[in-house]
Amino acid sequence: MHCFSFDIETIPDVDFGRECMGLDGLSDEEIATAMTFKRQQATGNDFLPLHQHRVVAISVALRSGDNFRVWTLGDEDAGEAEIVQRFFDGIEKYTPDLVSWNGGGFDLPVLHYRALKHGVRAARYWEVGDNDRDFKWNNYQSRYHWRHVDLMDVLAGFNLRASAKLDEIAAMLGFPGKLGMSGDKVWGKYLEGGIGEIRDYCETDVLNTWLVFLRFEHMRGNLDDKELEREFALVRSTLQGMDRAHLKQFLDAWPAL
Q1: Which of 26, 50, 61, 135 has the fewest CB atoms lying closer than 10 Å?
Q2: What is the H or E stretch that residue 53 is in?
Q3: Sign of the dihedral through C-alpha 187, 191, 197, 202
Q4: How confident is the model at residue 257 (pLDDT cuts 50, 70, 90)?
């Protein structure tokens, strides 16, 4: 079995603003400000429509066989088309179960639009049983199937009013949660040239999501107490072996029971 926990980080698609909203001649920062202002004026909320987001990082935690890995797709200078293609290539290669927090409401729709923009092919991801009967009753597209578990959606009983923030649920369960970064800081950090910090932040979100998922698997009977502790131990040992500052900070904020 292969299982991907994933998360994306995005910034305003200033090329969209420049080309489709008549904002040519402005700086990227000015365009983003104008885009969010227009959104605020139209809706009372400055969160941009999903098709106006550009992906700058996709992080994945992969549980496969006896191994656990966490990394961010592509190099720091990789373009959006490459990292989106890498994400769907991973699905093509592994046919993993996907795990996310609000992936159905944000991450995957954004990836759909960006894949469409860049001509990314993703046949396995869009399979619903026409070519593989196993996907008829369990595919990535259905909200109620298990190939993609959107933890925020599932734990809320598919009730938007009951949804919670990953950071708060992680903290409630004794996991690190966010460590100084948050999604609303990504654009500012990107303007400062801090793509490395954005990628690190994305990896810690993936780790929080994975740890919450392990507790969910324990709750629904797929892991017993000893198996849960072994999974936690595998994550700890993997992060210790990677010797990276943000992962050490994550471990320091995750006290052993």
Answers
A1: 26
A2: strand 53-64
A3: positive
A4: low
Asked if 257 and 215 touch (Cβ cutoff 8 Å), the reply is: no
Per-residue pLDDT tens digits for 67-96: 999 999 999 999 999 999 999 999 999 999
C-alpha closest to that of 14 among 56, 58, 59: 56
Q: Which residues of 7-42 are buried (b: 16+ CB within 10 A; e: fewer)?
A: bbbbbbbbebbbeeeebeeeebeebbbbbbeebeee
- Look at the pTM and tell me if it is higher than 0.85: yes
Of 66, 48, 81, 15, which is closest to residue 184 (Cα–Cα)? 48
- Fill in the amino acid letter for 55: V
Residues 99/212, Cβ–Cβ less than 8 Å: no
Question: What value does the mean pLDDT of the chain take?
Answer: 96
CA 110/CA 10 separation, integer angstroms:
9
Q: Which of 162, 211, 208, 160 is nearest to 182 (CA)?
A: 208
Q: 9: which 2 tokens? A: 């980080």
- Return the bridge partners of 89, or none: none
What CATH fold (topology level) applies to the domain 2-252? Answer: Nucleotidyltransferase; domain 5 (3.30.420)
Place of tokens 């109620």: 144
Q: Mind giving me the DSSP string for 147-188? A: SEEEHHHHHTTT-GGG---HHHHHHHTT-----S--GGGHHH
Q: Which two tokens stand for residue 191?
A: 């303007």
DSSP 100: E
Sketch the domain layout of the chain as residue ranges: 2-252
Two tokens, residue 56: 């700058």
Write the CB contacts of 68 (distance below 8 Å, at least 6 apart in sequence): 61, 62, 234, 235, 238
Summarised one tens digit per residue, pLDDT across range 147-170 is 999 999 999 999 999 999 999 999
